[in-house]
Design brief:
Layout (H helix, E strand, L loop, with lengths): L3 E4 L2 E3 L5 E7 L8 E7 L6 E7 L4 E3 L7 E6 L4 E6 L8 E9 L2 E4 L3 E5 L2
Parallel strand pairs: 2-11
Antiparallel strand pairs: 1-3, 3-8, 4-5, 4-9, 5-6, 7-8, 9-10, 9-11
């Protein structure tokens, strides 16, 4: 089982930016993909962005053009750059590591967008 530790969440005003980091305990290229999911109060956990082992990226329609997922293979870290944040982006953001036989999750980091 891999350990995933998220950081970078916080309170930001609408239109602001945050950068989330997810540090993995091992080589992230061994995963089929890594991604960011979010869960708002009373709602299901939804995918935000995914980066495959080959480097392809996938985004939820609601964040396209505003968020960018990237990784630093040498540091075994995945990032989520979030720009032009909106109140509806408020949620707990979770890092995910996916393999064909299962998923590992981080503990989550709170992002609150409010004036």
């Amino acid at each position: 089982q891999v350990q995933l530790v998220e950081s970078g969440g916080g309170l930001v005003q609408p239109g602001g930016s945050l950068r989330l980091s997810c540090a993995a305990s091992g080589n992230i290229l061994r995963f089929n993909s890594m991604g960011w999911y979010r869960q708002a109060p009373g709602k299901q956990r939804d995918v935000v962005a995914v980066i495959t082992s080959g480097g392809s990226t996938i985004y939820a329609d609601s964040v396209k053009g505003r968020f960018a997922i990237s990784r630093d293979n040498a540091k075994n870290t995945v990032f989520l750059q979030m720009n032009s944040l909106k109140p509806e982006d408020t949620a707990v953001y979770y890092c995910n590591a996916h393999r064909i036989w299962g998923d590992d999750w981080g503990q989550g980091t709170q992002v609150t967008v409010s004036s």
